[in-house]
Amino acid sequence: MRKKKEEERKLPRHIAIIMDGNGRWAKKRALPRSAGHSAGSKNFKDIARYCNKIGIEYLTVYAFSTENWARPKDEVDNIMNILRDYLKDAKNFKEENIQVKFIGNIAALPVDIIALIDDAEKNSADATGLKLNIALNYGGRDEILHAARKLAADCKNGLIDAEAISEQDLEARLYTAGQPDPDIIIRPSGEYRLSNYLIWQSAYSEFWFSHILWPDFKPKYLEEALDEFSKRDRRFGGV
């Protein structure tokens, strides 16, 4: 029955998720915000594994934005420690045939985390299942600015003619170069905005919002989003 259902509906190639609501989840339970981030991290692993199981090709999750540095230091430190724990355990994703890639300004992160990221990407490079992008120290505007600077440098070095720059030239310098744009962007927690996420790539993405806080966003809610996506008529500006 499950296989028949998957054959009848159209699955997206690329899902993007804004993992929002960890702090509110903890507050509702009179717990510290760190408990919410820990619960959100566990749920992220469960959702990634589920996407791999049902045959999603790409999953991009918003883990830490360029704006998140403005949060209290103890909260940022806690998030970084959760990231360290995940990276040390990243070998488990290799065993599940999940390829891990980090997108964002990785060079600005702590040195030990950069080394762990490098190991995680190298260790999963040969995986042929889900391509998992983790957006870390990421901002959509920052990404476009980064790509524009690379284009400017290539023009200065005579590698490209400024008058001939195309959309494809800029896309080739984004963190997601070579990947399809997200077909659907999912945001739980009751917020209705992109929050500086995948600004370029989301030009024709479908959106699906939910009031479920991220730690409670189980596969059944992802299934609701996928069912809704399957019913939508994507015309990309055509008729």
Average pLDDT rating: 93
Tell me the major beta sheet: 6 strands, parallel
Low-confidence stretches: none
Order of helices and strands: HEHHEHHEHEHHEEH
Distance between the termini: 34 Å
According to CATH, the homologous superfamily is Decaprenyl diphosphate synthase-like
State the CATH architecture.
Answer: 3-Layer(aba) Sandwich
Q: Write down the domain tally.
A: 1
Number of strands: 6
Work out the radius of gyration: 18 Å
The 3D shape can be described as globular
List the total number of helices.
9
CATH structural fold name: Undecaprenyl pyrophosphate synthetase
Brief description of this entry?
With 239 residues, this protein is an alpha/beta fold. Helix content is 44%, strand content 14%.
Structure description:
- The protein contains nine helices and six strands; from the N terminus they run H-E-H-H-E-H-H-E-H-E-H-H-E-E-H.
- By secondary structure, it is of the alpha/beta class.
- It has one domain (14-140, 182-230): Decaprenyl diphosphate synthase-like (Undecaprenyl pyrophosphate synthetase), CATH 3.40.1180.
- It has a six-stranded parallel sheet with strand order 3-4-2-1-5-6, sandwiched between helices.
- Helix 6 (111-123) links the parallel strand 3 and strand 4.
- Helix 2 (22-28) crosses helix 3 (33-54), helix 3 runs parallel beside helix 4 and helix 4 runs parallel beside helix 6 (111-123).
